[in-house]
Amino acid sequence: MKRKKKEEFKFSNKYHPLQGILGVIFAVIALIAIGVLFYISSKSSGNAGAWIGLVGGVVFAINIVGFILSILGFRKQEVYYRFPIIGILMNGCLFIMFLLLYIVGI
Predict the structure, then answer these.
(1) CB 66 within 8 A of CB 23
(2) Per-residue model confidence (pLDDT) at position 6
(3) Cα separation of 79 and 77, whole Å?
(4) What is the pTM (predicted TM-score) of this model?
(5) What are phi and psi of 47, to 5 degrees?
(6) Of 4, 37, 67, 92, which has fewest CB within 10 angstroms of its CB?
């Protein structure tokens, strides 16, 4: 019976998918942007103007693109799933936040 030595390494062809990494990057960008927009809106007592809504719409589009990219990264085979899962969770939570913000705004 052969025992494994501590010096043996396990090599694999797995890699981090670019779509998953980009999904996380887009989620972080959207999170920072929405935080800045909340700050600007609170400093102006809710009267920041229509441009805040327009920028919020662009941030929402970035969020959707990040979610789609994360799903595409998750569907690949023989990859590490860390970044796609983080991207799906972050973008999904941001999507729910945008949805709640829209419902409260009605």
Answers:
(1) yes
(2) 61
(3) 6
(4) 0.80
(5) -110, 45
(6) 4
Residue whose entry in the numeric block shows the structure tokens 């920028």: 55
Reported as half-sphere exposure (CB side, CA atoms, 13 A), residue 70 has a value of 23
DSSP 76: -
- Reading the block at residue 87, the tokens are 């991207």
67 neighbors 95 (Cβ within 8 angstroms): yes
Side-chain half-sphere CA neighbours of 86 within 13 A: 16
More confident position, 9 or 50: 50
48-67: average pLDDT: 90
> 6-15 contacts: CB < 8 A, separation 24 or more?
12/78, 13/78, 14/78, 14/79, 14/80, 15/79, 15/80
What sign for the dihedral angle of Cα 89, 90, 91, 93? positive
- For residue 41, the number of C-alpha atoms closer than 13 Å in the C-beta half-sphere is 15
The whole-angstrom separation of Cα 90 and Cα 71 is 12
